[in-house]
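User: Sequence recovery, please. Input:
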């Protein structure tokens, strides 16, 4: 059936729009992005520091202390307001251990957009995917944003100790917040293992059977932005639930809207996932999980770059929004 001239014109415009939409939604080439190269350089440096200090960043250890000093120095050099507040582990006495917390200058301190990654490793290895990858990603983002970005909200980044020991660093931090501090945190985004060598792209928040799995109200909105931004960089993410086993847990429990990102740990990749993301079905996402071989050659640089790009864009979107979730 022929349409009118106007109708054909409208059809042509629509078709052009659809075609433009198709081409921009097509998977991008899997070359590491500039941000991925930057995050990889941070990860290489973390490997060097960990090797030089005994091969692990378990809390406490010389490697953990060296990593705290290094991360704080990188963030200060990028212009961020940096502190290393101590926390008490469960049942611990004494002066406690250090987290690293950094925030931007000039944003509204009553509107804080937060992201975090654990800086410690298990005693058995240097923890380069788990979780040097999350740390490297946030350091790269910190450098890209600078310490005084032109955004209405404050962005705060945290690098947690003792994740591998009952999540004590993040738990101690959240326990130490008063009500006003807690209410100022609009949302929390957790990065834990974002460069698994046989991994995928998982987004936690807003999905599940109960509040422990979904997170509090607002978590679905956090997860949606993370999902959109991962999709935009060609990653085809999947929804996942919160398991209570990483640093988002204290934020979820405190009622702070939360999202989590990971590329998979010791579970096997399914056939459907291998079809979708590539890699080996029926093999672990990370065969070096919690082992000495979790080194710089144990990571997927493309995944590291995509997660870094997606988190950078997500934090800018969250911090640009004048309303809380
Ligand atoms: Zn971890």
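Assistant: Recovered sequence (325 residues):
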């Amino acid at each position: 059936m022929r349409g009118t001239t106007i109708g054909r014109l409208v059809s042509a415009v629509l078709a052009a729009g659809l075609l433009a939409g198709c081409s921009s939604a097509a998977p991008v080439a899997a070359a590491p992005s500039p941000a991925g190269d930057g995050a990889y350089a941070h990860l290489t440096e973390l490997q060097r520091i960990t090797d030089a200090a005994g091969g692990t960043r378990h809390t406490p250890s010389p490697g953990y202390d060296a990593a705290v000093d290094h991360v704080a120095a990188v963030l200060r050099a990028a212009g961020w307001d940096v502190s290393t507040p101590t926390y008490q582990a469960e049942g611990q006495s004494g002066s406690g251990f250090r987290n690293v917390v950094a925030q931007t200058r000039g944003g509204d301190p009553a509107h804080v957009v937060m992201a975090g990654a654990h800086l410690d490793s298990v005693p058995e290895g240097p923890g380069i995917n788990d979780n040097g990858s999350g740390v490297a990603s946030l350091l790269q983002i910190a450098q890209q944003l600078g310490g005084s970005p032109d955004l209405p909200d404050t962005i705060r980044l945290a690098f947690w100790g003792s994740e591998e020991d009952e999540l004590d660093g993040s738990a101690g931090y959240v326990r130490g917040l008063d009500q006003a501090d807690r209410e100022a945190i609009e949302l929390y985004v957790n990065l834990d293992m974002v460069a698994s060598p046989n991994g995928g792209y998982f987004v936690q928040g807003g999905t599940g059977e109960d509040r422990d799995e979904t997170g509090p109200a607002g978590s679905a909105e956090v997860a949606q932005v993370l999902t959109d931004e991962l999709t935009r960089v060609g990653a085809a993410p999947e929804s996942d639930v919160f398991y209570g086993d990483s640093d988002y847990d204290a934020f979820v429990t405190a009622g702070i809207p939360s999202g989590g990102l990971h590329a998979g740990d010791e579970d096997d990749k399914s056939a459907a996932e291998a079809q979708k993301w590539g890699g080996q079905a029926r093999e672990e996402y990370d065969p070096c999980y919690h082992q000495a071989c979790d080194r710089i050659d144990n990571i997927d640089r493309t995944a590291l770059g995509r997660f870094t790009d997606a988190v950078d864009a997500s934090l800018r979107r969250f911090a640009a929004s004048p309303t809380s979730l």
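The longest strand covers residues 108-118.
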